[in-house]
Amino acid sequence: MPKERRSKRKKTQHDKFVELARASGADESEASFVAKVRAISSTKPRKKKSRVAEGTKKVNPKFREAVDSLHPAFERLIAAPPHMNGAKLPKQGVYLFFENGKAIYAGRSNTIPQRFGQHTRPGSQTNQAALATLIARKELGLPVDYRKGARARLLANREFMIAFERAKTRVRAMEFRAVEEPDQKRQALLEIYCAITLETPFNDFGTH
Prior knowledge:
mainly alpha; 3-stranded antiparallel β-sheet; 10 helices
């Protein structure tokens, strides 16, 4: 009966470690164990690619520089004394409303003192007291509506108007802080930076 041909198998790294262990006097089981340990210790761990790092490389350097420069202004805004305690408001820049120690809304304006008045005056309308409008909508489960005639529909909604008046009273009791920022692009970026960093619940960046 013809002898079966043995297929030649290429030596693996494990086989090489086993031979080295045998040469040092180890028996079969010891040689196999030593080989496994050496194989594990000699295996280089694969470096995981960081998705964040990859994504950072794609950011335009000018944009990244602009975003990185926002944090000092953000820190000044957080540390600013609240207006309700008599702090002088800057003319233009970014502002925050705080309730129970938490920032709940970020905004920007070129006339901050007037904008503060629009948010808090008892007689302000829905197109002026934006935060109160958002609070009332959320209270009643009404989605933000940019369609034609949306404001007229709100004004005709008695339940909403009652919630709106209640929301304005709530806004007047909040702390208000602001920081100077005359540059319009930096204003826009800082407003978004605050909203994202502080997770302000009432910021809506929807558009028509």
